[in-house]
Amino acid sequence: MIKLDLGPEPSKLKDKREERLPLAIQAFNVHGHGSKELNELLDEGYQVARPTLLHRQHSKCAFCENLEDHESRPVEHFRPKKEAHDDMSGSVIAVTSHYWWLAWTWSNLYFSCIQCNKNGNKGSLFPIKAGTSRAAAPTKPLADPIPDSFYDFSAESALLVDPRTDEPLDHLQWIPVKRTAPRATWRWTIEGLSDKGTETIRIFGLKDRIDRVNGYLEGLKLTAIEIDKHLAAARLDEAREVFTRLVVQYVNNASSPFRNAAYWALDALYPEAARSAHGFCALPRPHVTENTDPLPAPRGKKAKKPKARSGSSKDHPRPGGQA
Ligand SMILES: [Zn+2]
After folding, report:
1. C-beta atoms surrounding 198 within 10 Å
2. Are 175 and 164 in contact (CB under 8 A)?
3. How far, in Å, from the CA of 190 to the mean position of ligand 1?
4. What is the CA 193 to chain-centroid distance, rounded?
């Protein structure tokens, strides 16, 4: 997982929210949360965000960074739109009142692979730190528009890394399983650097898919051996050039999968002190900024020119304008 800036919400999602949220508030006020009337509303509309999410996430799952080129993959509600569950030390507890009012909220939506989103992995889980309080849920009667306070989660101690608001590299690290083994045989595994990181690995089942990441890192590892040969022969310029090539290809390239793993793999192969001693280029933290390439045109049509950004990078929709 890497930090994502997914830009402003698409206008189609805003239109859907303005159409459906007032109906949802009405259903909540009349029938309550968990009602059939409200739940039916929650199942529709948010899918209009899928093409934009897919495009701006460079066709990668927001959580495991696997490349996903199929547009039928899920739109994941980071905070579940219904039937939210906590997971306290493996004991799953229903949280019945959360977070239906975020069903069409841009900052709550991600493009996800099936494995990360399925029941048994993330599903409708949204754990918070033990002993802390969940953000307040609306009570009846709820005003329309919904007060801003219900969109402020800064005090909620979530135990899942949010790639929009957290720096995933502070929570998730790929490390060599056996650092003392010859480097040509290294394999990597993912570990948490915090409670949030550890829970994120467990909830998304990220360790189940380390073989795929290790397969991808084979090419990086073989090229690192090439660097070692250059260093052993005192060919510093060649070693620097190959290291730069690895950084560009595996870490900086927005379209590459598993950039978190590649960052930590290069950092393990050539720690800061070694990079400095050899005069290697910097190893930047991988971030995704909004993909400003035009959306691919449907077959038979020309690609649209990219629209100018609105000037606001705020991606937390708010009631009262519902931006
Ligand atoms: Zn995934």
Report:
1. 15
2. no
3. 14
4. 17
Q: In the prediction, which pLDDT does 197 show?
A: 98
The Cα angle at residue 119 between residues 61 and 201, in degrees rounded to 5: 55
142-156: pLDDT as tens digits: 999 999 999 999 999
- One-character DSSP codes across 275-322: HHHHTPPP-PPPEE----SPPPPPTTSPPPPPPPP-S-------TTTT
Torsion of CA 258, 264, 270, 271, to 10 degrees: 160
Ligand 1 centre distance from Cα of residue 62 (Å): 7
What residues in the chain have per-residue pLDDT under 50?
Answer: 298-323
pTM: 0.87
User: Which residues surround the ion ligand 1 when the cut-off is CB under 5 Å?
Assistant: 61, 63-64, 113, 116
Residue 40: per-residue pLDDT: 96
> What is d(CA 210, CA 220) in angstroms, rounded to the nearest whole number?
15
DSSP 49: G
Q: Give me the pLDDT at residue 318, please.
A: 39
Q: Which two tokens stand for residue 281?
A: 């280029």
Residues 70-89 pLDDT 10s: 667 779 999 999 888 887 66
Read off the amino acid at residue 225.
I
Query: What are the structural domain ranges in the chain?
Result: 3-127, 168-288
